[in-house]
Design a protein that fits this description.
The complex is a heterodimer of chains A (147) and B (48). Chain A is built from eight helices and no strands. Chain A is mainly α and 147 residues long. The two termini of chain A are 30 Å apart. Chain B is mostly helical. Chain B has one domain. Chain B contains one helix and no strands. The chains are: A mainly alpha (147), B mainly alpha (48). The interface between A and B is large, with 42 and 31 residues.
Chain lengths: 147, 48
């Protein structure tokens, strides 16, 4: 797995992760905009709520795949335990936030696919949590590597 | 037709955001902070 990820990123695992997580952070903001439209909080003449929901769902599926890929890059490419012990609070916060992100995002997908109306009421809160955790994960990792 | 154009347009915005962010962040990654792959295949020098 480590070799495959190294080859896939041309040996620049960190640089690839910085670019990918930055893309995810921007797309997360776009997802919030789309959610505001299909929940009726914002009305724009050029985009119907139903279409915004379709785009939100399809973009979200793509985002989930990329998050899983980045998670695999983290787990296989880094000594996570050593990093937490020796790299300080930033890395520890990044590991905790990113783990929570995967858990909450998985919960959101479960609620979307299998949840009933009562569970669906919590989707805006779960979605907001995913957004904040994604930005937190980006701020504790990629932001450090940008100049 | 309008709905189709809306779908294409909104997904097009997502694609444009993706490409734009890739271009901008790709140019601003600090290679001195990024970690190099060592001979064991593990990465040292930082964590992102």
């Amino acid at each position: 797995m480590t070799d495959w990820i190294g080859q896939l990123s041309g040996g620049q695992v960190t640089s690839v992760k910085v670019v990918l997580t930055s893309i995810l952070a921007v797309l997360a903001i776009y997802q919030v905009c789309l959610a505001s439209i299909f929940y009726g909080k914002v009305r724009v003449p050029f985009l119907a709520g139903r279409v915004a929901a379709i785009t939100h769902r399809s973009s979200g599926d793509a985002i989930f795949v990329v998050i899983v890929l980045i998670g695999l890059m983290c787990v296989s490419g880094y000594e996570v335990r050593d990093a937490i012990e020796h790299r300080g609070a930033r890395v520890a916060a990044h590991v905790v936030i990113s783990t929570l992100l995967v858990v909450v995002l998985s919960a959101k997908i479960i609620v979307l696919r299998f949840g009933r109306t009562r569970a669906s009421r919590f989707l805006p809160y779960i979605g907001s949590s995913v957004f904040l955790l994604l930005l937190g994960s980006w701020a504790t990792s990629s932001l450090f590597f940008l100049r | 037709m309008t709905r189709f154009l809306q779908i294409v347009g909104s997904i097009g915005v997502a694609v444009a955001l993706t490409l734009g962010t890739a271009l901008i962040t790709g140019a601003h990654v600090d290679p001195t902070k990024a970690c190099a792959v060592d001979s064991s295949g593990r990465h040292g020098g930082g964590h992102s």
